[in-house]
Amino acid sequence: MATAVRTEITDRVAVLTLSNPERRNAMNLDLSGKLADAVRTVTADDAVGAVVVTGEDPAFCAGGDLGELAKADPATLLDVYAGFLAIAECPLPTIAAVNGAAVGAGLNLALACDLRLAGPRARFDARFLPLGLHPGGGYTWMAQRVLGPQGAAALTLFGDVLDAQEAARIGLVYRAVDDVVAAAVELAARAAAAPPDLVRTTKSTLRLTAGMDTQAEAVEVEVRAQAASVNSDEFQQRLAALQAKISSSARGQKG
Q1: Label partner for 107 (CA 20 to 30 A): which of 8, 141, 164, 234?
Q2: CA distances to 8, 115, 158, 181 from 87, in Å
Q3: What is the mean pLDDT of the chain?
């Protein structure tokens, strides 16, 4: 069966579903290229304000295509990485709806998202070293950023495999839920409902300030961005609507 990345848009949320059913959505070159294309397409679509990534049941993404990896040079590996790097670089808020196994490259894809939710069948398995394979695609940086040095070592060096509840306990995922795609869409829709330029700027600021050493540095970045937002039409309109609502509520209480 052919690989595909299906796109569905609901409440300004684009749900990208990996489909490589014969290989449990393994990230081969074809699927990686299609994912990168899908990310570029939805990012350029004014009707989309956030992105959810998931896999065709029962897996999220069962790793890279080992047949392709066995013959890969650095240029080919970069092509394999293209899909989850497109997610990592996406200016829109991104959520991984991990509905099943996230192995190797699939774990990379989940880590590349801003936030991860885990369904009941989710399983997180680095599995690089048991295959004799060095991690790639920025995995070591992402894993340490999310889990810290000890958590990253547990998954990467010591082969710890996590289910949904344990992943939530140690902070690999934000929450374990029953209906992971529905929960991801509901959460993503909150971001998608905010002013689009403001959302992109705020995501950019979060990334920038994450690498800063002091609060004072963050204040210098935020004060310029917040001042610009105060003068935006979106803020003025939403402020007026909120003030009208408060005024109406106050009149109702007096009556």
Answers
A1: 8
A2: 16, 12, 27, 17
A3: 95
* Alpha carbon distance 95, 34 (integer Å): 18
Residue with tokens 């309109």: 237
Please state the φ and ψ torsions of residue 85, each to the nearest 5 degrees: -70, -35
**Paired tokens of 236:** 């003025």
- Whole-angstrom distance, CA of residue 86 vs CA of residue 90: 6
Question: What span, in angstroms and rounded, lies between the C-alpha atoms of 97 and 177?
Answer: 10
Q: What is the reported pTM?
A: 0.94
Strand order in the sheet with 4-10: 4-10, 13-19, 50-55, 94-98, 115-118, 175-176
- With H, G, I as helix, E, B as strand and everything else as coil, classify residue 255: coil
119 Cβ neighbours under 8 A, 6+ residues apart: 97, 98, 99, 100, 164, 176, 177, 178, 179, 180, 181
Which residues, at least 6 apart from 159, have a Cβ–Cβ distance to it below 8 Å? 126, 127, 129, 130
